[in-house]
């Protein structure tokens, strides 16, 4: 008995309606193979002729023994599927059903051939990992001494933590406080020293300025342009530093 791959139902919903029991069919064949199958046509209306055809991809590979049968109620249409020796391993196409003397046409997908599943390939790294895992001993007692040793170490560390943590905290607190006081003292001393130098230099320059005008011509000293420029820069720097300190205190 031939295998029925599809059941086509016509005139059930309305006149010239076409329905398929299976959305698609597969015909497993290898190149050089051949298989006969049947398509069942079920008619719920008045007797009529139908036409069976295939798409361009399946022409020459699926042949209907009767492509224009007359269907009363049920009709079996035989077909032959073949793949040439040098043909494609897999071909996808459509089988079309035409009713109402060409007024309506509908098809369903057909897969002719087999898809060969490729063997799973493993990379060289995965192969080495598998071999290493197989070579490892599976005795769980080997890992137990290591776990015990690690637990003893962790337990001893926890036992000393109550003693070490307060001492360390106290030591770090004292050290940070002492260093903070030292840095504050050093900063204060440096600022006082700079302020003293600036005030002394400013006073000295003012003194020399008035002295230049008070002394008689015979005792006056001469100042070159580079010296005057340096004195001016030093005077402005000292004066600006003193003003900044006064503004900070305010």
Please tell me about this protein's structure.
The protein is α+β, with helices and mostly antiparallel strands. The chain folds into 2 domains: 3-113, Immunoglobulins (Immunoglobulin-like, Sandwich); 165-249. The chain contains 3 helices and 11 strands; from the N terminus they run βββββββββββααα. The protein has helices spanning 124-135, 143-214, 225-249, and strands at residues 3-10, 18-20, 25-27, 34-43, 48-49, 51-54, 62-64, 70-71, 74-82, 90-99, 104-113. It has a 5-stranded mixed sheet with strand order 2-1-4-9-7, with no helix packed on it. A hairpin with a 7-residue loop joins strand 1 (3-10) and strand 2 (18-20). The model is unreliable at 156-164 (pLDDT under 50).
How would you summarize this macromolecular structure in one to three sentences?
The protein is α+β, with helices and mostly antiparallel strands and 250 residues long. The chain is built from 3 helices and 11 strands; from the N terminus they run βββββββββββααα. The chain has 2 domains: 3-113, Immunoglobulin-like (Sandwich), CATH 2.60.40; 165-249.
Class by alpha and beta content: alpha+beta
The best one-word shape is rod-shaped
- In the CATH scheme, the class of the largest domain would be Mainly Beta
Number of strands: 11
What's the domain count? 2
Contiguous uncertain segments of 5+ residues: 156-164
Identify the CATH architecture of the largest domain: Sandwich
């Amino acid at each position: 008995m031939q295998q029925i791959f599809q059941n086509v139902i016509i005139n059930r919903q309305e006149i010239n309606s076409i329905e398929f029991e299976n959305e698609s069919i597969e015909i497993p064949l290898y190149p050089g193979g051949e298989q006969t199958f049947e398509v069942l046509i079920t008619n719920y209306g008045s007797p009529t002729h139908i036409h069976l055809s295939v798409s361009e991809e399946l022409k020459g590979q699926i042949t209907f023994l009767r492509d224009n049968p007359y269907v009363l109620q049920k009709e079996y249409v035989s077909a032959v599927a073949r793949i040439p020796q040098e043909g494609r391993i897999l071909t996808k196409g459509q089988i079309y059903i035409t009713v109402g003397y060409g007024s309506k046409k509908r098809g369903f997908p057909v897969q002719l051939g087999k898809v060969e599943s490729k063997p799973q390939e493993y990379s060289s790294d995965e192969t080495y990992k598998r071999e290493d895992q197989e070579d490892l001993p599976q005795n769980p007692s080997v890992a137990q001494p290591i776990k015990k040793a690690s637990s003893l170490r962790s337990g001893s560390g926890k036992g000393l933590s109550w003693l070490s943590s307060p001492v360390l905290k106290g030591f770090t607190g004292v050290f940070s406080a002492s260093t903070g006081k030292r840095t504050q003292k050093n900063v204060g001393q440096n600022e006082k020293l700079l302020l003293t130098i600036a005030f002394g230099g400013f006073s000295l320059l003012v003194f020399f300025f008035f002295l230049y005008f008070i002394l008689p011509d015979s005792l006056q000293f001469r100042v070159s342009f580079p010296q005057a420029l340096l004195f001016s820069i030093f005077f402005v720097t000292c004066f600006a530093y003193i003003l900044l300190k006064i503004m900070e205190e305010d």
